UniProtKB/TrEMBL annotation, chain A:
Transmembrane segments: 6-26, 91-119, 139-161, 173-198, 210-230, 237-256, 276-296, 308-325, 337-359, 380-397, 417-441, 453-475, 503-524
Single Gene Ontology BP annotation: aerobic respiration
Ranges of residues in domain Cytochrome oxidase subunit I profile: 77-548
Membrane is among the record's keywords: yes
Example of a GO cellular component annotation carried by this entry: membrane
Protein species of origin: Ramlibacter cellulosilyticus
Gene3D superfamilies per UniProt: Cytochrome c oxidase-like, subunit I domain
Domain of life of the native organism: Bacteria
GO molecular function, one term: cytochrome-c oxidase activity
UniProt name for this protein: Cbb3-type cytochrome c oxidase subunit I
From TrEMBL, chain B:
UniProt name for this protein: Cbb3-type cytochrome c oxidase subunit II
GO molecular function: electron transfer activity; heme binding; metal ion binding
Keywords tagged on the record: Heme, Iron, Membrane, Metal-binding, Transmembrane, Transmembrane helix
InterPro entries: Cyt_c-like_dom, Cyt_c-like_dom_sf, Cyt_c_oxidase_monohaem-su/FixO
Residue runs in coiled coils: none
Presence of keyword ATP-binding: no
Pfam families per UniProt: FixO
Gene3D superfamilies: Cytochrome c-like domain
Residues annotated as domain Cytochrome c: 44-188
Bilayer-crossing regions: 7-28
Amino acid sequence: MDSAVLSLLAAFLLSIIGLFAFIWSLRKGLLVENPAAASVIFARGEVGRVDDPALHAEDHRSLQRAAAGADGPVADPSDLQARVLADRSSALPVFMFVAFACFWLLLGSVAGLTSSIKLHAPDWLVEQGWLTFGRIRTVHLTAVLYGWITNAALGLILWLLPRLLRTELRGAAWTLLGGALVNTGIAAGIGAISAGWSDGMEYLEIPWQIGLFMAAGLAMIILPVLFTLVNRRAEHLYVSVWYCVAGLLWVTLLFVVAKMPGVHTGVQQATTNWWYGHNVLGLWFTPVSVGAIYYFLPKIIGRPVRSYNLSILGFWTLAFFYGQVGGHHLIGGPVPGWLVTLSIVQSLMMVIPVIAFTINMGGTLQGRMHLARWSPTLRFMMFGGLVYLASSLQGSMEALRSVNAVTHFTHYTVGHAHLGAYGFVSMVLFGAIYFMLPRVLNWEWPYPRLITLHFWLAAAGISIYFVALTVGGWLQGLAMLDPARAFIESVTVTLPYLKWRSVGGSLMVASHLVFVGHFLAMALRFGPVRTGAALFAPARDLELSYGK
Amino acid sequence: MENEIKLASGAMVALGVATAALVVMPYLQVRDVPAPARLQPYTDAQLRGRQVYIANGCVYCHSQQPRDRSLGPDLERGWGRASVPGDYVHDKPHLLGSMRTGPDLLNIGARQPSKDWHLGHLYQPRAYVKESIMPSYPFLFSVKDEAEAQREGEQPLKLPPGYGPAVGRVVVPTPEALDLVKYLQALDRTYPVLPAPAKP
């Protein structure tokens, strides 16, 4: 047997061992359903009580009536008090991360729209180097991936953990310092890319010298998170804690290994590049967003997640399979054949965690799906969850050689990437921010209609974007595979679809203007007077607003 | 689940397996790949040009990895034979790319050796390929008076009629453009990678 077959067997063996380890841990006492662990997100007596801080008091009552037909149970006041303290401890860091996220979202999506237009107007804005397609496109990617999603995800983690662990955030000052370092790195990285200083690999363009700041910043966020974790007062670690803490550890190690200067070489650098590129989505964006849905969705509808074990199955299968799928970006490339095959197999195995998640959420939502009419947060979460299913299944199919032969190197892949990063991850993060900020600032969203407007603009935008690039990319791939057609035909066939992509992108940018404007209005206390004081509110006001 | 140790160690094992498969094993497999005998290392000018290629993000539209005939007509399009790991031993960072908004460039130097064509095409792609959507790169050139360029000993671009500047003015390339073209001309992996079969 040659080395390729041997290594393939070894990889399979390892995956099987991983599965056995999982089965073993089930036998150690996880085989029985665990309703106690599933209810950790509720205070005692709170199950059955809906919760959506994005709603004003009257709408909140309609939501409660629509859910249970009554006023809902009354939660244990001491548990609520613990939650108030947990929220207070994380309020300032969370606000900082969300504010940074909003800033980068706006900058990143304007850069994205600019590069989209440049693809069908190639002589537009060409006089300055920093505006050339290759740079502004990378500014877009860096700003939305690291600036928007990563900042929002960090804010989400810092807000969720104290709540779920029923303790205060330890070392909040360190997370502020860490956040400042991370964002210094992002800003410097974007400046460097605009000036033409880039490490040259997709997703890893930020020069490693600047990457040092980001790695140090992430470490300063991890330490308080771990310290909070070991000082927890909750008995069970809820599944969102698993996803969030693991994601944070993963992304830091991914970044450090991939950015190590002078280690990676030749085509091995390419495999590392895609190991990183896909894992940023698979082991950072996805776990945090899935963890968020596992918290917010049951919390909003006031019903514990249907099967706690299924959520743990989803976690471990995601952890073992997702890390190895990156090689499918190099199908047909000059890399070892066993590696590509391994990645294709693991891409298909990803169906398991996705289906586990979908069944679980479907079961949890059963009979309460209509609540999305009332709750904007739920609407974002349901949209994100459905798109997670769609984009993951699409990704698994795309890894198959027969499909990949057409879609590789085309805009189809770009459409798929946006479906995952926007339709799934960003929509979940929007929903989470709408839920979190009223608790962080103790101030209601001043204009609830803007939330609805934001949702429909974003949903329509990503739909147009995705359909256009999927169709256009597929036609582009077919044209490229046909030796009888000149290469330029694969370019001209995409033009109408590239224009539609700009239309979808404009709607998305418009939705972000609404969102960030609303955020500013809230932070600056525009709109009707609401529940009470701000970030540093006296504890008494907070208690009152929680008991509404 | 109730144990943070299990969480952290399990998460690290999962990532460790993935890293072993996609980072460490390929490293062990390809780190000692020898350079093909006829692959020349890049010259200083070509390396500078490669930096210009990286700085302006050419990789986001142009791959550098012709594929096997079973996967597509890359050979028929003149992009060259399927590449092998040895072709990339001098490439730091790798520029395999993931998009073909434009054609594959691993052998562009063999396909299009003309310096004048490359310079003119960078200045205005649509002067050569009418339907191209490649950006033009005027910031890699400067427009001067003909007399001034002559005095400074610079070679103006030979552009197709209708695409040049006003009468009496000429377009001259910056050093970055010249380096970039040197790099593009050096992209030539048309040498054989397997020894010729023995004659019967």
